[in-house]
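Hello,

Following up on my earlier ticket. Below are the two sequence lines again, exactly as submitted.
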Amino acid sequence: MKHSLKYVALSVIAFICTMPLIILLLLSFSKFWQFPNIFPRIFTTENWADLFVGNNNILRSFSLSAGIALPVAFISTIMGFITANFMANHKKRNQLLLLTYFPFALSPVIFAVCLRFYFIKSGLAGSYLGVAAAQLIITFPYCVIFFISFFNERIKQYGHLVNTLGGNNFYAFKKAILPAAKPFFAVCFFQCFLISWFEYGLTSIIGYGKIQTLTVTVFQYISEANIFQAALSCCLLIIPPVILLWVNKKILLQQAH
Amino acid sequence: MKKPTLIAFVAGSLLIIFAVLPLLAGLGYALLYSLGLAGTLGKGFTLENYVQLFSRNNVIGTFVYTIILSIISLSLCIFISLLITLKFQRFFSRGIMSYLVSLPLSFPAIVGAFFFFQFLSSAGLLARIFYQAGFISSITQFPNLINDKWSIGIIATQTFLSCPFFILLFVNIYRNERINEYLHLSYTLGAPKLKAAFTVAIPVMLKKALPTLLLYFIFKLGAYEIPLLLGRSTPETISVMAVRKLQRFNLADIPQGYAVAVLYAIVVALLLIVFFKINRQLHEA
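Thanks for your patience. The regenerated structure is below:
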C-alpha cells in the first residue's frame, strides 16, 4: 500500500512537470477553444503548416533568436574563459568577482533601461548588433562566474606540473588546461544560449520593438490574445532548450552544486 | 616588476568593457538623472524625485510587496523541494524522473506566465474542469487566480519554474554530503524519522544551499515578465514599476523611474555583500 502511494505521488509529480508542455502542444494544434469546453473544438496542423508558408513571422523570429543566441553564447563563453583565467590569479580576485556578480544579479530589464541612453546615442538601439551587445553584458559576467570555479588550485597545479616537466605556459594551457575545460565549455555555452534565448525584458527595451525575437513575438501574441499562435511560439521557444537540457543534464547537475 | 602579458591585457579590457563600464555608466546615469543632474529635465541637484517617490508613489510598498512575493515563492520552493528530496531522492538522481523534473527548467518566464494564464484564469482550463465537474455553474463563480489580490498566479508560476532547480540542487547535496548515511546513523541511535530529518538532513542541506538560495532570492526581486503578465497594477513589483515610469509619455515620471532603479541597485548590492560573506564563511568552514 505504502509502495503504491509512493508511485502515485511520483506519477503526480511527473504529470505536473509534463502537463504544461502537453497543453501548449495541444493548443498549438488547435482552433476555437470556447468556454466551457475542456478541449478545443478543432484540431488542426494548420498553425504548424503555416510556419513554412511565405515569410512567416514566427519562423523569422525563431531564426533571429537563434541568430542572436548562438553568437552571443559562443563569444561570451570564449571571453568569459579568458577573463576568468586572468581573474583567478589576480590578487584582488574577490573584489573583481563582486563587480562581476553585480551586473549578473541585476534585473536585466532595469539594467537595460539604465543603459538605453548609451545605446540610443551610439545608434545601436533597435538594431541586431545593439541587442546582441546588450545580451553580452548579461552573459559575459555569467561566464566569468562560471569559469572562475574551474580555475581552482587543482587546475593551477596541472599547469605547474607541465612547467616543472619542461613545458612552457602555452604548452601547459594547450595540453593540460584546455582538455580539462572542454566539458565546462559545453555547459557554459549551453547556459549562455539559454540566457539569451529566454531573454525578453532587455531585448524589448534595447530592441525598441524592432528586433522581434521569439520571446518578443510570444509577448505580442499574448497581448493580442492570439492564444494558438502564442502556444505555437511557446513550443518553438521550449523545444531547443528541452533538447539541449537533456543532453547536458548530467554535467549541469554537477554544476548546480 | 612583472610585465603584464597580452592575455592579461585582453582579459582586463574585456572585464572593463563588458562588466565594469556598463555597470558604472548605467547606474551612474540613473543616479545623475534621479538627482536632476542629467537628462532634458535636469535643473540641477535635487532630492525631489526621491521625496515624491516615497511620499506619493508608495515605493516602500512596492519593495515590501516584491520582497514578500519573493520570500513566499522561495519558501514554497524550498518546502516542496525538501519534501520531494527526502521522500524520493533516489528516483530523481537518475532515470526517467530526473529527466522529467528538469523539463520546467526549459520554460522561459514568459512561457510559464502564458501557461498559467491559460490554466488558472477564469476562462482557463481549471475553470472549465470545475464547470464540467459541476463545481461551478458560470464563469464568474470561479475564483480570481490571475491578476488577483493575493498574487496567486505569480506565486504559482514562480514556484513551478523554480522548484525543479531546487529539487536537483537538494538531491545533489543529499548525495554529495552522504546525508543518507547520517540519517541511518541517527535511526540506529534511536532518533525517529521526522526528528532525524529536521535535525540532521534539512539543516545540512539548507546550510549548503544557502548562497544559492540568497542568489535566487536576488534574481526573484528583479522578476519582470511574470508580474507584468499575471500581476495587478497596484501593488506592482520593482521592475514593473521602474519600467512603467521610464516608458511613460509623462516626462516627469522618468527621473522617478531612475530613482527606483538606483534604490533597487542599492538593495541588490547589499544582498550581494551578504552573499559574499556567507559564501566565504562556508568556504572557510
